[in-house]
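Obj: model holo form, ligand = pyridoxal-5'-phosphate.
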Amino acid sequence: MSNVPDIKVTPPGPSAREIIAKDEHYVATTTKSLPVVARSAKGLVVEDVDGNLLLDFSSGISVLNTGHCHPRVVEAVRKQSGELMHFAGTDFYYDLQASLAQRLSEITPGPPEKKVFFGNSGAESIEAAIKIAKWSTQRMRVIAFIGAFHGRTTGALSLTASKNVQKQRFFPTMDGVTHIPFANCYRCPYHLEYPSCDLWCAKTLDETYLSTFVPPDEVAALFGEPVQGEGGYIVPPKEFYPTIRKTLDKYGILLVDDEVQAGLGRTGRMWGIEHWGIYPDILTISKSLGSGIPISATVFRKELDFGVQGAHSNTFGGNLVGCAASLATLDVLSEEKLVERSEKMGAYFRKRLEELQEKHELIGDVRGLGLMLAIELVRDRRTKDFATAERDRVIAEAFRRGLILLGCGRSGIRLIPSLTVTEEQIDTALAILDESLSTVAK
Ligand SMILES: Cc1ncc(COP(=O)(O)O)c(C=O)c1O
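Output (holo structure tokens):
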């Protein structure tokens, strides 16, 4: 729609401000990043409570790969809600849960002999992965990357390492976690250059950590995001995960691939890890799976299963409405060829962002895969000082003009529209971003 955004009153308008005041009074402090108060949405267009039409390039934190309220998903949810909403899928049986598990086993990378544990959130899928890894290997240590985000429940939080505020006042979390630097060619933690670095970031796992102070026969698993999300949309070089995988195989350590943000077509492949040509032992999915209905899945090699009733369970996992929404989401992704679309539109978007980078000194880096894209703002392209305050102001300026964006890392801006995005919508977002960058640069 060429009339979107349509700003009738600069957001937040009077109705929005009233709701924000009520929210601030009653709702616990979380991570609110923009004063947008939505009333309804369709595709990428959000109507706020003051009648403004906004363009959503945040996808509800990467949840709406099929767009807001896709008719197929809405219909599946409506139908299921009228038939059976809850039947405790951990304790009893129904077909939707078994069918979704079968479907996920078939479409995730690696041999199809897999099992699935259902939960309600990304963090819960990580908690399950931790327990499956510990249970099956009977090893109690885990490894994760600096910059990682795996969630905020205590087990998942012990793996998360992207911002101090997420960890402060919560120490100690789960014991036995070692963090190692992630691959980041824009800001190499070892101050090396790719490819002359010879992939030290991957080799150091074996040559430093596992050889000196992290006994490999005590390590259950290594957790990694294919593209580090919250940490700044950081894409490792092509040799990174294959090298890591080789080391893990040498010691019988499991690889947990956290696809909570990158999965389901976001990177231009169904699963982010496919870009590295390897497959994990355990894979976690949430966010986009239910197109907005909370659901998560931890998919793992069949032989890693608990095999004992009661070792792990929950009440709502595999909820019927969530399963119906997920099956409809998978249908939409495949029938509308949204994964291919993510790759194609992502290439177009990236090229246009690189043009914007030529115009704006503030843009230090353009990166990502498919429609999992970000720009990183810097005060000086040579020193790469993080332009955090400028980033926040660009997001605020864009919002005043009707574009919803989210930050990532210390000075990044995520550009993650639904995979249904059109070229026209990308052009509109770029024009707003261009203006917002110019305003802030002044
Ligand atoms: C890669 C990744 N893992 C796990 C999580 C945690 O998901 P949730 O917020 O649903 O608990 C997130 C959330 O942003 C994520 O990006």
